[in-house]
């Protein structure tokens, strides 16, 4: 559980960095659109470059939204992992305490110091568990832990895939914008010549 939580934390940090690094390209694309609006007269044209810049802004925003969604899922999964780990540790601690008590009781004799008669101790407490419920509680904790680890591993894979897919989408659109700019610059140079 600790290893899985650490692995998910590392992937979450990578996702946070990737999300922050999308801000600069978004600003550049928006600034390009802003500067293109400053053109005057007949030069103020809606062309392929503008369409590709708008698509780039949309692509980056869409990628950011998906990253934020997965970041929220990672935060929730980390909380579930920690809760499951806490339950396992608490159960282990309780079992160790019970073992120490049983071990101490096992070594008690009629001649042991501090042994006395306590009235009503032989009555059965209804809140006490039986071996079956004791084992089932532990089994349930272990199953929950396994389930959380599996969900965490799947989420890590999803985040890894998301990072690859979004990077490819943004790079492809970046290249399309650059190609559009190159073509537009060539068209403008031809028109000037």
From TrEMBL:
It is a peripheral membrane protein. InterPro entries: Tektin-like, Tektins. It is found in: Cytoplasm, Cytoskeleton, Cilium axoneme; Cytoplasm, Cytoskeleton, Flagellum axoneme; Cytoplasmic vesicle, Secretory vesicle, Acrosome outer membrane. One of its GO terms (biological process) is cilium assembly. Keywords: Cell projection, Cilium, Cytoplasm, Cytoplasmic vesicle, Cytoskeleton, Flagellum, Membrane, Ubl conjugation. Its main location: cytoplasm. Microtubule inner protein component of sperm flagellar doublet microtubules. Interacts with TEKT1, TEKT2, TEKT4 and TEKT5. Interacts with CCDC38. Microtubule inner protein (MIP) part of the dynein-decorated doublet microtubules (DMTs) in cilia and flagellar axoneme. Forms filamentous polymers in the walls of ciliary and flagellar microtubules. Required for normal sperm mobility. This is Tektin. It comes from Homo sapiens (Human). The gene is TEKT3.
